[in-house]
Amino acid sequence: MRNVSTLLHMRDHPPGPLWTGRASNRAQWLLAVVGAAFVVLGVQLAVASNWTSGIVPLVMSVVGCLAAGLLILFGTLAFVHVAVTVDAESLVVRCGHIGLPRCTIRLAEVTAAEFVPRVSPHQWGGWGYRWRPEKGTAVIVRRGEGVELRLDDGKIFTVTVDDAENAVRVIRTHLRALAR
Fold this sequence. Notes:
Blueprint: H1 4-8, E1 19-24, H2 28-48, H3 55-77, E2 81-86, E3 90-95, E4 102-106, E5 110-119, H4 121-124, E6 128-132, E7 136-140, E8 144-151, E9 156-160, H5 164-179
Parallel strand pairs: 7-9
Antiparallel strand pairs: 1-2, 2-3, 3-4, 5-8, 6-7, 8-9
């Protein structure tokens, strides 16, 4: 990561990210283990069962366990961590190990950036990619500091990330440069 004070005085900058940050939630790994256990149970039922009550209950049990396990596993792993990058044109949020879901917000569409010292999953209805009509959209992976962007269409976007205060400084510097 580059020195923020140097970035604040730069007028022209090299291509590439100006700020990068991450946030993670180790507690969600426990949910991933539960999802994996459901998958194992589904496989165990499919392989080792000699159900005499028919094929339909067996198929329903196997499919139910596999479906629940995969939904829990992939839904959890998608929001174990978040990576946020600010470059000269946009803020990009990538979730999980594959980078999906991915959200790109152009800095030209941002009217204000605020540091939020305490963002809680409780405020947004849980972890993950959240939308609330009265609040806007958020990517919440843990409780703690975050960045709140007010967009030119009146919507708000919030993301929890470590070192959010420096991210806001870099974004505000770009907003001032765009206003000139």
